[in-house]
Every structure is written in structure tokens, then in C-alpha cells.
Structure to design on (933 residues):
């Protein structure tokens, strides 16, 4: 009985420590973003609550934060939807057809997802320059689609394989072509899985940094992570208040999505990453 | 629609090599006939059904709907399921979980791009026939097993298919429901007059439903006939064993001829063969034969002394109206059905075989 | 194989076509392009010149390359085990939790979901010498009298990067290990308790061996990820001070950004070769096909 009690206390303490580690930076971000003076932790300063930082990142056009946010949402959104659609078609073929070498496709996709971005981005920069797409949405959307494909393919193949094959057979007998089996039966049945894959792909694309850093040059296409990483004050001083407010505005929706879809994200990640 | 299979074969390639699921099968299902494919699991009956549906391509052979070739490997003809206009019902119902009952039934018509009002009429009609008009707005997950199967059948009949294919449709239902659905299916098929191919491993289903039954084993047809023909005149031990609710008694036996009589020795007992069976037995090449007799053709007698074969009751199974006795005769066990229930375990009994109904098979 | 059948297969491959087009056009061709570029002197506004392996020869004589390779190796050796242990502890804790399970799991996921460039910015502030949270907490507890110069010293910058990266990636490892933990049948634990094993023995004899395949996969996955680390370092230290935290990706990026595509490509090809070798190993070890059956 004593041992049980000790164990419970240890676990509780561990959980508290774990949560502090995971959430501390996030809280520090929020707290700083609401402070008039970002140096409030130094002995000379004190903490004064303000919403000034938020109004400045949202309304001050010279900061372009809203532009970055819009760019990020458009680019990641389009890439996630296009990527998951493309992956669905491929996943359907892999899950259902007699395709020699289909396991090879899966393994290859896995290997591709581990390529270092730096080995791709140099040529991409040249290609996008040649196409005249540098600093446009195109420069990011196409590579992002390719970037989210392997993960999406893995997750969707795994989900599609779980749908009973009788459904396909019924649909073929009911007069469907293969494409119709996919669009009228498999995709609607797997809709929750597809949506959670879109969410994962979106987070993936939204978090991407190096492509955006190199393939965009200003607020016309620059995404939020790059925007925030390069945030500079007018006079050389780092505008911590603005940065933290911008970070908070960006991460809050992500955090809320994570809390709501926590189960689906975890299921998707484990499907995509490991079947050890 | 008349269905004809000619020299149909299907091989599957797998990691372990080639498996021939269907071996050179030819059979004809007549117009409006209820035809049952019966066999143990893995005998190729479902593959055969998939071949007829167009879900699998034959490795060789032809399939004809009336005079139309829908598959012929020699002439490279292969029609898709859609072009064949067949309907299929599956063991696990295969209802589209994301669609309401109405949309499930309407699905094949929507794919065929029927008019909305036509679809509505057809769905209503099919739903009325199956008695599920009240469920049209439910999702499949809200239905019981029996209701789901009705929806699946409604979806199958809604567009008046050429051929109706059923793949173990009653196997997932509980015993009582299975019985009532069986009757209903039979009536439905009579009423709609659709040629029907029905796959099952359940001999009772096959006997009660089929106009004719084909018994399959390892991809080959063992025998085709009406249920009574198969029951009364099984061509081999496999067929004899497969049919019958209490399994048939099978013994090694030896034929001896004495003057103009023929005797058969079973487990040390000698039984005279009636005249009308003598011709059949004389045709056998060897003296050793296999003797089969159904439990209902074994008559237990309470006085052991006067019967040709004597034994002792080992076990009694009450089946309701009848009683199944397990009687030990030397080292063998004979199963006998009796209408009386006055038996006791350990009782010495005599056994009389109704030799007119006995089956003789050549031993391998 | 008869002809109808093979035509069928061909048609089936069409379903893979859009997928293949994207992967080939935006990942494979760029990689091949980098290999080709690495054979050239290719600097913006200068004439392109074929060098064959000169870039590679220069690379192996380049002390900057060896420094960043050393950093990358050191980073892998320190951060991967650190993240793995952290992830294992988190996973074991999460596996015990019954109440507020959903919320706590989500909380652990949050670092993974926030873009690393953004969280790195917060870490930058946390590490601030004068008013950062790190020095505030450490002096508050009284561990250090003097504030630590986190980002300005070699060791400080290294530790800063490792911690910020671990914060970001531990959740991912946690999720993977947690899936492995939940695959261990509960009655195994019960059996070991009946057999008189205490918690630590049970962990050693049952949990760890059964988790081993998952740990190996997580380890390799993280190794490849750590090899290509970029975002966190770019934001936190920019590779400094004095190149002390220049990873191979940062090293290559510095050449790209200065317009030297030939040499930048050479660096990225070497990095690619190492990562690809590791990922082949990863694919082989993880027995992925089992999950699809």
C-alpha cells in the first residue's frame, strides 16, 4: 500500500515537471507578449500588463505580420489539400491493386521524407528563379506538396488498408469504375482519416522553414516562421514584445487545433512514423 | 438470363507459388434457377462467384450470359462488373457506412445516372418488398444484422439485375433469423424470377434453397444435382459426408458372393444384400468397398439376439422428435436415428441396416 | 502473364502518377541537380566551370567543413540520447496517467506543433543574458551566482541548441514510444509483479526488451533528423559563436546564400549521402510492411 502511494506521488511530480518543461516556453511567450516591458525579469524592471504588442503586430502594416500569416495559411492550406488528394489516389492503388513493386514505392517514399532539405533547396532556388516564381506562392506550394506527400501516403495507405475490401467489391458490382470506387466510397468512408491527414500535412507545411527562407524574399510570399525569425526592429533593438505577440497569435490556433485533434494527430503520427 | 461457365479456371499467384482456386469448371445455371454452390471454405466457391461478377479475371475459359460472352480468355473478352449488370450480396453486408439506407439502395442507380424521381420510385419499391421502408433515413450502423442484410438485398434487386449473386449472405445472422431469412429469400427469388447463384458452406441452406446444388471441393465440382439427388445418390464419399444433418456412417466392407447371393462383411458381421442392389455392387472392380448408410436408415432393435448385427449403446443425443444413438459394434461406432426415446446407455441392441438405402463406393 | 492482365497493371500505375510527378520534379530532380552542380564551379555572376571532383577535394581540405561535421556528430551524440531518455520518461509517465489524459497528452504535443523557428525565437529570449527566463530561474534557485552567457560561449551555445531542440522533438519520440508501450500486453506486467519483480526489474526485464525495436526506430529517425538540423540553430545562434554551432545544413546554407551553388551543392551532396545511408538502414530496421497487413 505504501509503495503504491510513493509511486502515485512520484508520477504526479514527474507529470508536473514534464508539463512545466513542455509548457514553460509557451507561457513565457504569452506572458512576455502581454508585458509592456520585455525585460520584466531583470531586477531593474517591473511587469506592466498591455495589449499594445498585439495591436501593433496586427495593425501596424510595416511589420507585415498579417501578410506572413495569410501567406502561411494559403500556402500550407493549398499544399496540404493538394498533397493529401494526390496521396489518396496513390494510397488507394497501393492498398488495393495488384501492383508489383508497391512496397518499394512505400519504402522509397519513406526514404524521400528523410532527405535533408538543404540538398534540395539549392536546385529549387535555381529552378524557381528560372520559372520566375521566386517570392511567389508557387515557389512554396509545389515543393510543399512534395514535402507532405510521403507522410500522407503512409498514413492513408494504412487507413485505406483497414477498410473492408467487400466495400470495393460491392461498389464495382454497383457499377463504379476504379476512380469512382475511390471518390464515392473509399474517400467518403475514410473522410475523418483524410481530414486528420490534411491537418497533419498542414502542420508540416506550416512549420517548414528552409524552403520559405530561401525561396521567398519579402511579405509577398514570406511565411510566418521566416517572418518571425527575421523580425527586426527599426533601430537594431530586437522588438521582443512584437515578436512574442506575433508568435502567440501564430501558435494559439495551432495549440487549440492540437488540443482538439490530439487523438487523431497521435494516431496519424504513429501510423506515419512507426510500425515497429 | 441463363448463365454458362465453360472450362473456367482461375490461378492466383502468391508468395508461395501458384494456387489454382478454380479448376476447369463447366456448369450451366438455367433461367430463373436458384443455383447453390456448396463446399467447405477454400473450395473456390467464392472465387467462382467473383468470376461471374467480373471482380476477377479468369485464367482460362468462358462465361456466357445467355448468348453473350462476358468473359473469354481466348478472344480477350472481359466485361467489367458494371457492363454485366449483376447484383451481389455479401456475408458482411458491405453497406456503405457513410450513406443512409436510402442512399445505399439508390447507389447503383445514381452511378447509372438515373433520374431522381425514377430513383425514388425504384428505391421505394425495393424497400417495400424487403419491408424496410421505415428505415430509409437511418445509417447502416443503427441497424441490426437482419435489417442490414435486408438493405443489402434491396440494393441488389433495385436495378433488376441479370443475375443475382449471393456470397454466404446468411452466415453472420443468428440461427433463428437465418431460418426466417432463408424462407424469405426463397420466396423473393421465386417472385422476382431472377437467375440466382448462391454460395454457402451450410448444407441445410443449400438443401432448402437450391433448385440445384453443385458441391465443390478444392476447385473442382464433385457433383451437381437437385438436393434430393445429391442426398439419395451421392457420387462419392465426400458428397455423402457433406450432406445430412447427422453425418453418414462410413465403413470399410468386403463383398463375398455365394451361389446367387451376395453378402457384405462389415466389422465381422455378414449381411445379405437385397436383389435390387446386386447389379450395382457387381460392377465394382475390387472386393473391398466402402459402405455408407445414413443414421435414419439404421434401425436399432431392442432384442439383440435376433438381429444380424449386435452392439451396445454408448451415447444418446436427444434431438427433439428423434434420438441419435451412438452404438458400438466391435471397434466401430454406428450412428442410428430412432423415433423412440426409450433407450438407455449400456443397453445391448441389435442393428438392422436398411440395405435398399445403403450406398456403396469404390475404395481408393 | 497474359496481355489483358499486364495492361491492367499499367493502368493501375497511373494512380501513382501524380504522386510520382511531384516527388520526381520537386525532390528527386533537385537532388540529382545538386549532384551535377557539385561538379561545377557555379557562383552567381561568374562563369560556370566544370571541375569534376575539385569541389570535393576542397571540401575535404576545408577546416570549416570538418568543424561543422564535428559539431553535427557531437550534436547527434548528445542530443539524440538526451531526447530519447526524455521521450522515454515522458512516455512512461503518460502511460500511467488516467485523469486529464487528453489534455496532458495534448500539452506534451504542443512543442511539436509550434513551428520550430517560432519556438526558437522564444528560446532566444529565454536564454537572454540580462532578462531571460533561464538565468532568472537559475539565480532564483541559487545554483549560479553569475548569470550564464548562454548564446555567447561555445559550450553555452551548444547546450542551448540541444535543449531547445530536445524541447521540440521529445514529444515526437514520446508518441512513438507510447505507441510501443501500449502494445505491451498488460498481463505481462501483472505476471512479473506476481513473480515478485519490483518496478525497476519489471522495466528492465519486460518493458525495455519489448520496446527495443521501437527505440531503435526512434533512434535512427532522430539521428537523421539531428543530422540535418537547421531551423533552431539558424534562429538561436546563426551557427555562432565563431562557427561553434554551425551544422552541416547551416554550413551549406551559408554558401548558397552567398551565391556559391557549386560548393553549397557539394556540402549538401555529402550530407545527403550520409542521411540516405541512414534512412536505408531505418527502412530496413523498422519492418514497416507489417503494419499494412
Amino acid at each position: 500500500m505504501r509503495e503504491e502511494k510513493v509511486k502515485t506521488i512520484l508520477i504526479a511530480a514527474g507529470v508536473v515537471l514534464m508539463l512545466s518543461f513542455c509548457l514553460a516556453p509557451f507561457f513565457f511567450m504569452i506572458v512576455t507578449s502581454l508585458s509592456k516591458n520585455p525585460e520584466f525579469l531583470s531586477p531593474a524592471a517591473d511587469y506592466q500588463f498591455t495589449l499594445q504588442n498585439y495591436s501593433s503586430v496586427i495593425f501596424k502594416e510595416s511589420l507585415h505580420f498579417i501578410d506572413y500569416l495569410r501567406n502561411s495559411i494559403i500556402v500550407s492550406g493549398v499544399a496540404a489539400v493538394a498533397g493529401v488528394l494526390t496521396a489518396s489516389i496513390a494510397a488507394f492503388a497501393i492498398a488495393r491493386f495488384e501492383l508489383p513493386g508497391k512496397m518499394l514505392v512505400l519504402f522509397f517514399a519513406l526514404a524521400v521524407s528523410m532527405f535533408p532539405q538543404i540538398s534540395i533547396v539549392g536546385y529549387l532556388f535555381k529552378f524557381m528563379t528560372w520559372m520566375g516564381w521566386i517570392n511567389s506562392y508557387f515557389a512554396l506550394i509545389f515543393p510543399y506538396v512534395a514535402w507532405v506527400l510521403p507522410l500522407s501516403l503512409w498514413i492513408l495507405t494504412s487507413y485505406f488498408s483497414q477498410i473492408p475490401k467487400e466495400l470495393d467489391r460491392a461498389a464495382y458490382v454497383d457499377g463504379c469504375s476504379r476512380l469512382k470506387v475511390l471518390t464515392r466510397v473509399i474517400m467518403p468512408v475514410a473522410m475523418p482519416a483524410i481530414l486528420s491527414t490534411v491537418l497533419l500535412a498542414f502542420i508540416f507545411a506550416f512549420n517548414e522553414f528552409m524552403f520559405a527562407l530561401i525561396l521567398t524574399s519579402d511579405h509577398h510570399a514570406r511565411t510566418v516562421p521566416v517572418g518571425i525569425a527575421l523580425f527586426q526592429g527599426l533601430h537594431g533593438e530586437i522588438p521582443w514584445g512584437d515578436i512574442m505577440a506575433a508568435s502567440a497569435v501564430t501558435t494559439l490556433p495551432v495549440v487549440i487545433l492540437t488540443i482538439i485533434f490530439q487523438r487523431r494527430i497521435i494516431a496519424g503520427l504513429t501510423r506515419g512514423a512507426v510500425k515497429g | 438470363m441463363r448463365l454458362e461457365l465453360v472450362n473456367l479456371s482461375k490461378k492466383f499467384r502468391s508468395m508461395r507459388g501458384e494456387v489454382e482456386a478454380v479448376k476447369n469448371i463447366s456448369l450451366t445455371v438455367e433461367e430463373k434457377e436458384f443455383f447453390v454452390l456448396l463446399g467447405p471454405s477454400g473450395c473456390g466457391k467464392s472465387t467462382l462467384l467473383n468470376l461471374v461478377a467480373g471482380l476477377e479475371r479468369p485464367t482460362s475459359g468462358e462465361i456466357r450470359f445467355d448468348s453473350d460472352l462476358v468473359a473469354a480468355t481466348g478472344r480477350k473478352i472481359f466485361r467489367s462488373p458494371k457492363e454485366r449488370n449483376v447484383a451481389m450480396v455479401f456475408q458482411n453486408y458491405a453497406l456503405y457506412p457513410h450513406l443512409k439506407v436510402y442512399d445505399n439502395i439508390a447507389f447503383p442507380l445514381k452511378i447509372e445516372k438515373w433520374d431522381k424521381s425514377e430513383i425514388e420510385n425504384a428505391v421505394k419499391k425495393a424497400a417495400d418488398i424487403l419491408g424496410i421502408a421505415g428505415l430509409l433515413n437511418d445509417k447502416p450502423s443503427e441497424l441490426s444484422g437482419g435489417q442490414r442484410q435486408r438493405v443489402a438485398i434491396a440494393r441488389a434487386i433495385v436495378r433488376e439485375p441479370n443475375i443475382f449473386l449471393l456470397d454466404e449472405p446468411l452466415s453472420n445472422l443468428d440461427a433463428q433469423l437465418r431460418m426466417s431469412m432463408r424462407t424469405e429469400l426463397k420466396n423473393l427469388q421465386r417472385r422476382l424470377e431472377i437467375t440466382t447463384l448462391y454460395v454457402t458452406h451450410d448444407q441445410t441452406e443449400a438443401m432448402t434453397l437450391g433448385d440445384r446444388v453443385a458441391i465443390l471441393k478444392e476447385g473442382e465440382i464433385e457433383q451437381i444435382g437437385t438436393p434430393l439427388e445429391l442426398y439419395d445418390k451421392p457420387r462419392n464419399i465426400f458428397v455423402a459426408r457433406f450432406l445430412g444433418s447427422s453425418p453418414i456412417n462410413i465403413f470399410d466392407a468386403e463383398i463375398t458372393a455365394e451361389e446367387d447371393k451376395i453378402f457384405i462383411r462389415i466389422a465381422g458381421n455378414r449381411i445379405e444384400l437385397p436383389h435390387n442392389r446386386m447389379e450395382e455392387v457387381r460392377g465394382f472392380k475390387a472386393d473391398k468397398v466402402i459402405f455408407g448408410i445414413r443414421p435414419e436408415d439404421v434401425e436399432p432393435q431392442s432384442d439383440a439376439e435376433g438381429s444380424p448385427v449386435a452392439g451396445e449403446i454408448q451415447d444418446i443425443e436427444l434431438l427433439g422428435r428423434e434420438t441419435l444413438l451412438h452404438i458400438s459394434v466391435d471397434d466401430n461406432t454406428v450412428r442410428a436415428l430412432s423415433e423412440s426415446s426409450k433407450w438407455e446407455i449400456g443397453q445391448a441392441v441389435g442393428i438392422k441396416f436398411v440395405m435398399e438405402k445403403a450406398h456403396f463406393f469404390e475404395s481408393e | 502473364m497474359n496481355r489483358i492482365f499486364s495492361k491492367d497493371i499499367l493502368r493501375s500505375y497511373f494512380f501513382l502518377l501524380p504522386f510520382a510527378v511531384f516527388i520526381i520534379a520537386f525532390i528527386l530532380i533537385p537532388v540529382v541537380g545538386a549532384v551535377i552542380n557539385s561538379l561545377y564551379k557555379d557562383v552567381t555572376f561568374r562563369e560556370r566551370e566544370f571541375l569534376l571532383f575539385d569541389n570535393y577535394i576542397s571540401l575535404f581540405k576545408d577546416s570549416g567543413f570538418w568543424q561543422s561535421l564535428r559539431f553535427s556528430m557531437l550534436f547527434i551524440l548528445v542530443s539524440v540520447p538526451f531526447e530519447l531518455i526524455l521521450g522515454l520518461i515522458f512516455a512512461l509517465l503518460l502511460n500511467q496517467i488516467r485523469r486529464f489524459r487528453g489534455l496532458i497528452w495534448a500539452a506534451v504535443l504542443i512543442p511539436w506543433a509550434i513551428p520550430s523557428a517560432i519556438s526558437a525565437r522564444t528560446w532566444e529570449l529565454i536564454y537572454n543574458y540580462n532578462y531571460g527566463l533561464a538565468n532568472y530561474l537559475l539565480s532564483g534557485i541559487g545554483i549560479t551566482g553569475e548569470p550564464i552567457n548562454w548564446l555567447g560561449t561555445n559550450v553555452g551555445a551548444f547546450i542551448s541548441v540541444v535543449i531547445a531542440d530536445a524541447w521540440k522533438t521529445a514529444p515526437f519520440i514520446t508518441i512513438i514510444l507510447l505507441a510501443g508501450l501500449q502494445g505491451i500486453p498488460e498481463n505481462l506486467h501483472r505476471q512479473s509483479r506476481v513473480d515478485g519483480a519490483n518496478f525497476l526489474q519489471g522495466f528492465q526485464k519486460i518493458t525495455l526488451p519489448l520496446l527495443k525495436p521501437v527505440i531503435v526506430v526512434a533512434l535512427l529517425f532522430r539521428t537523421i533528423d539531428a543530422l540535418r538540423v537547421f531551423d533552431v540553430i539558424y534562429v538561436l545562434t546563426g551557427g555562432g559563436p565563431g562557427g561553434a554551432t554551425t551544422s552541416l545544413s547551416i554550413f551549406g546554407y551559408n554558401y548558397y546564400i552567398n551565391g556559391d551553388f557549386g560548393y553549397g551543392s557539394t556540402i549538401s551532396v555529402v550530407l545527403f549521402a550520409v542521411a540516405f545511408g541512414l534512412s536505408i538502414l531505418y527502412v530496413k530496421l523498422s519492418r514497416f510492411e507489417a503494419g499494412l497487413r
About this structure: The first helix of chain C runs from residue 3 to 13. Chain C has one domain: 36-292.
